[in-house]
Amino acid sequence: GFEISIVANAAFVGDDNKSFVLDTSQYENLQFRDGSLQKEVATAFGDIEGIVVVVEGESSVPLIPPQDAEFELPTGLGESNINFVPTAFLQASFAPLKGTEIKARFFPKINTSDAKVGFYGFGLQHEFTSWLPADKVFPVAISGLIAYTHLDGSYDFTDTNIVDGENQRFENNTNTLLFQVIGATKMPVFNFYGGIGYLFRNFDH
C-alpha cells in the first residue's frame, strides 16, 4: 500500500553534544584572547560563557595596519534549559513487495531573515521474519533498514558585526547513511520497539 503522514518527534541532547573542543591551530586567522590553542566551547545546546576569540584582520590599504576583531562566542540554548530538538516532517512510504517498504522524508527549506534549513531522505526497509513460517505464531518482527539523509543549512551573521564584511555566514551540508536492524513485537495492544545500527556521516562547513 501507499501511505503519507506527518511525523513529529523530539530528540534529547546528551551532555557530550553540548560542547566541543575548538582548536585554533586548524584556522589561519583565529585565536583565543588568552593565547590558548584549544578550549571547550558551547554548541547550539551548550552553556559556556566568557570565551573570547580574536579574528586577525587584513588591510587592503598600503601603510595602514590591519585591524583585528574581538568578540565573545555565544552561549547555546542550554542557558534556557532547552535539552531537546523538536522536528516535524512529511513522510511517504510504499510497499511494492511483501515485507518491503520504500520510505521518503522531506522537510521543505525554511527561510528566515538570517537562517535557512531543510532536509530530505529516503530508505529501504525489509522485514526478514515475514518470510518465515512462524510469522503468524511468533509475534516478533525483525527488519533491516538502509537510509540516506541530506541536511543543509546556513546562518547569515553579516548584521551581527561579529566580523566586518559582506555575505558573512556559516554553511553546513551533512550527508548520513544509516544501516540498522530493528526489532518489534506484534501484539494487539502494546508493542515494544528497539534497534541497533551504524551511521556513516560526512559534512562540509
From TrEMBL:
It comes from Aquimarina spongiae. Pfam families: DUF6588. This is Outer membrane protein beta-barrel domain-containing protein. It comes from the Bacteria.
